[in-house]
Amino acid sequence: MAQIHIGVNMEFVRHHDMSFAAGVEKAAQLGYQYIEPMLHWGRELLSEAGYFHSVSMWDDPLDIRAICEKYGVRCSSVSAHTALCKPDVSVNYLRAAIRFAAELQAPVVNTDEGPKPDFTSEEEDHLLMKYVLTLAARAAEKRGIQIGLEPHQQYSKTPAGLDRICKLVKSPAIGINFDTGNSYLAGEDPYAWLERVRDRVVHVHAKDITIQQSDAERGKVTGTPVGCACGEGVIDWKRIIDILKPVNRPLCFSVECGTIEQAAASIDHLKSLI
Fold first, then answer.
1. Distance between CA atoms of residues 265 and 274, nearest Å
2. How far apart are CA 51 and CA 19, in angstroms?
3. Mind listing the pLDDT tens digit for each residue in 152-186?
4. CB 149, CB 111: distance < 8 Å
5. What is the phi/psi pair of residue 97, to 5°?
């Protein structure tokens, strides 16, 4: 039976203008034992000034780990979304994220195919993704890191499309970061999709969708940055949990919401079910 843990994506403090360290402290105060940092390259003004939560891969991952240990939390994963269809960017970005995650002791690196170039065909895009994922998988296998491919963009918005990407490279390092909200908004049945892929799921983005957003966007978009509080939208969380119970490995539900209040409500709801 799966060991299901509850975490939170650091996006929950984005609109509160909080630094990474302040966000980690807040997550711990809310009762979260796991967090999901968002990584970036180089220097970023708002993060440097302490008004934004993302973490630079130019920083020492051991310093980031020390902040987590100070507040008694661990990293379930890192958010390292990069355009897999653009190898000039994604090869080095993703390999750097994998090395960073290994030192951070975050077992999963989440990504997706990203926006495609406007001058490539579908077949060319999949060849480019195969090249990127081959190099990324080699780096991940050596470090015991899982790559969580997320349904989020033009090709991964359907079960068949996500399967095709996952099968481009045969590697035990390649798995799925299943996003409940993205799969729903894309117009798919998230429960049937999750049953189809649950043996390959290595991480879950616990994203709920309001009825209003569902009415306005379902079938028209491939994803959304954050959702509402878990339990206040259209997703049946008990059903999601029941589908994943037979999986014989630890899984983290990383809540993706937009405010501290939503993060507080989400952990209360999920704890009542798990």
1. 15
2. 5
3. 999 999 999 999 999 999 999 999 999 999 999 99
4. yes
5. -65, -35
| Helix, strand, coil distribution of the chain in percent, nearest 5 | 45, 20, 35
The pLDDT value given to residue 208: 98
Tell me the CB-side half-sphere exposure of residue 41, using CA atoms within 13 A.
11
Q: At what angle do helices 61-70 and 20-30 cross, to 10 degrees?
A: 30
Query: How many residues are there in the chain?
Result: 274
pTM over 0.90: yes
- d(CA 38, CA 57) in angstroms, rounded, equals 10
| Domains located in the chain, CATH noted | 3-273 (3.20.20.150)
- Per-residue pLDDT, averaged over 192-215, amounts to 98
Q: Which three-class secondary structure state does DSSP give residue 88?
A: helix
Q: Which two tokens stand for residue 266?
A: 């989400």
What is the rounded CA–CA span in Å between residue 144 and residue 271?
29
pLDDT digits (tens, 9 = 90+) for 101-141: 999 999 999 999 999 999 999 999 999 999 999 999 999 99
Of 39, 35, 40, the residue nearest 9 (C-alpha)? 35
Position 209 scores a pLDDT of 98
Residues 116, 146: contact at Cβ < 8 Å?
no
